[in-house]
Amino acid sequence: MKMKNLTYWLFLAPCIAALAIVLIIPFFQGVYYSFTEYNGFQVKEFVGFENYINLFKDDQFLYSLLFTGGFSIASVIGINVIGLLLALFVTQKMGKFNTVFRTVFFMPNLIGGIILGFIWQFIFLKAFEGVAELTGLEFFKGWLSDTETGFWGLVILFIWQMSGYIMIIYISFLNNIPDELIEASTIDGANVWQRFWRIKFPLLAPAFTVSLFLSLSNAFKVYDQNMALTAGGPFSSTQMATMNIYDTAFKVQEMGYAQAKAIIFLLIITAISVIQLYMTRKRETDL
């Protein structure tokens, strides 16, 4: 038994070491730096909770948190609704076209966030302007020069990227629904809507738990799309929390202050994720 335990820990040691070097040690280092005046090269002095007090007086950081929250709510709803609709569509009997559609819908998730940002920047700046000139519709003009349309531009980009990924999760759960249940409900006279709402939807509860968690956590962490599409403009009105933290750390060189922001942001994401998991798993139990 002792030899087995020793072998077990020897095989596990590289993973533990990698986890400690990449995650655990940097995390505690970051916590320490958040209590200091750190510029990336040296710790000037220990300031205690001063960084944490200052960030609650930082209007731009608080605004970026609210902007990120609104973006996350809109994105999570859009991603899961569209992802579920796509999953329902590609699980219909369409022969070889099922694979084609699944591949096409999933492909945006394979493109890097920076490239996606520039693709959609071209669409909003060039394609939309072209449509505006042809049709005379003001709706298509200046999409990235306005806070409101810039917000929806980021939401559209993120939904387009993530919907195919979430679709795959819903497909896996839809395929596990027994055919006997669907056949029995059809014989009993249930229509398409009744079959979805009364049978498929309750059985998809575990899929909602996973999909909501993934889409929510990813929405809060968006940076590269934000940088490539709007760069936080105009006048930092579309700056998300991750970009605000990055700018504080690398543009202003206040890394201790940026680390304090990152810790608070981590706590907010953790709290929201725990509440979401609790609510959706409770829903699973109720169903």
TrEMBL record:
<dbReference type="InterPro" id="IPR035906">
    <property type="entry name" value="MetI-like_sf"/>
</dbReference>
<dbReference type="InterPro" id="IPR051393">
    <property type="entry name" value="ABC_transporter_permease"/>
</dbReference>
<feature type="transmembrane region" description="Helical">
    <location>
        <begin position="201"/>
        <end position="220"/>
    </location>
</feature>
<feature type="transmembrane region" description="Helical">
    <location>
        <begin position="103"/>
        <end position="123"/>
    </location>
</feature>
<feature type="domain" description="ABC transmembrane type-1">
    <location>
        <begin position="65"/>
        <end position="276"/>
    </location>
</feature>
<protein>
    <submittedName>
        <fullName>Sugar ABC transporter permease</fullName>
    </submittedName>
</protein>
<feature type="transmembrane region" description="Helical">
    <location>
        <begin position="61"/>
        <end position="91"/>
    </location>
</feature>
<comment type="similarity">
    <text>Belongs to the binding-protein-dependent transport system permease family.</text>
</comment>
<keyword id="KW-1003">Cell membrane</keyword>
<keyword id="KW-0813">Transport</keyword>
<feature type="transmembrane region" description="Helical">
    <location>
        <begin position="262"/>
        <end position="279"/>
    </location>
</feature>
<keyword id="KW-1133">Transmembrane helix</keyword>
<keyword id="KW-0812">Transmembrane</keyword>
<keyword id="KW-0472">Membrane</keyword>
<feature type="transmembrane region" description="Helical">
    <location>
        <begin position="151"/>
        <end position="173"/>
    </location>
</feature>
<dbReference type="InterPro" id="IPR000515">
    <property type="entry name" value="MetI-like"/>
</dbReference>
<feature type="transmembrane region" description="Helical">
    <location>
        <begin position="7"/>
        <end position="28"/>
    </location>
</feature>
<dbReference type="Pfam" id="PF00528">
    <property type="entry name" value="BPD_transp_1"/>
</dbReference>
